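User: For a teaching handout, I'd like to show students what a predicted protein-ligand complex looks like in token form. I'll give you the sequence and the SMILES for flavin-adenine dinucleotide. Please answer with just the structure.
Assistant: Understood, here is the input followed by the structure.
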Amino acid sequence: MVLEGVYKVRSIDEVVELLEKYRENAKIIAGGTDIVIALRNEKITPKVLIDISSIDELKSIKDEGEFIKIGAGVTFTKIVESSLFQKNLWGLYKACRLVGSPQIRNKGTIGGNIANGSSAADSIPPLICLGSTITLASKNGKRKVLLEEYYKDKANYGMKEDELLVSIDFKKPTENRVLSFAKLGLRKALAISRISIATFLELDKKGQVTTIRVASGSLGKYPMRELEVEEFLCGKKLNERTIDEAIKVVQQSMDERLKGRSTLPYKRVAVESMLRESIGDGIKFLDGVRA
Ligand SMILES: Cc1cc2nc3c(=O)[nH]c(=O)nc-3n(C[C@H](O)[C@H](O)[C@H](O)COP(=O)(O)OP(=O)(O)OC[C@H]3O[C@@H](n4cnc5c(N)ncnc54)[C@H](O)[C@@H]3O)c2cc1C
């Protein structure tokens, strides 16, 4: 199919009208860092593109008291520069800071990262750890989906051809909880994450785990919670021994999930340092809070 045109739109209403009209013949373009490659390789051949990069409503980060709302059109650079993602939300800052190059971070959006849905998308494991919800809009109205469910069950929760991802929101963690992130890329610059681990952690006064969420990138078909390791670590004191054992738990889950894949031996080794770094950074932060 030949590309007939590009609609440069200024409102969400305009986007949903066009999506309703063109359905599978339309594709949204935000920063273009993923889709332009797909167009060039003729992986997709839409009739029209809907350019959402001028919709102001999609480009803000809002501190709504109990919640933080990030517009789908917010770039990685904007997240890196926001003061909201320092301190105990530092894991999201780090994930965005490690995306590609300055050019990619300036153009690439968090909504594009989520919608493109690569297993290696850097922003997703931290957002899953935070229990994030995404809001999708169509002519029929809006619906909210838990990000974790969105990837797990695309048939029921995935984005439909007439939907626009509008925003991502999550509850602000209290200061005794921390989000951390570790990533191993193939190259230092422009590395698409080959393995990433995000951890959300809370410890009691004795240093025992009261809350833990662990999410991985590139350890399965999509970014996901590592429920077995969460269950293993909950209630335990974090030390060399328990972290070593936790690594074995993740490796066992991977063995089943990635059975027969040529990358499994490499990923088994790499996950070790990623989990250690992610949990270790979390402990260091909380030690500072408790000191
Ligand atoms: C050199 C290079 C390095 C990269 N490095 C990294 C990296 O380190 N980590 C990483 O995670 N990614 C990386 N990427 C991938 C890419 O930059 C990200 O996935 C980025 O977030 C995509 O956002 P975008 O706005 O450019 O999306 P686009 O390319 O505009 O769109 C991507 C897809 O999402 C859809 N879409 C976009 N916005 C919406 C919306 N609001 N609602 C519905 N659908 C939407 C589009 O239709 C398209 O299918 C890299 C890419 C390149 C080219």
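For the handout, you might add this sentence: The chain has three domains: 5-51, 57-171, 177-290.
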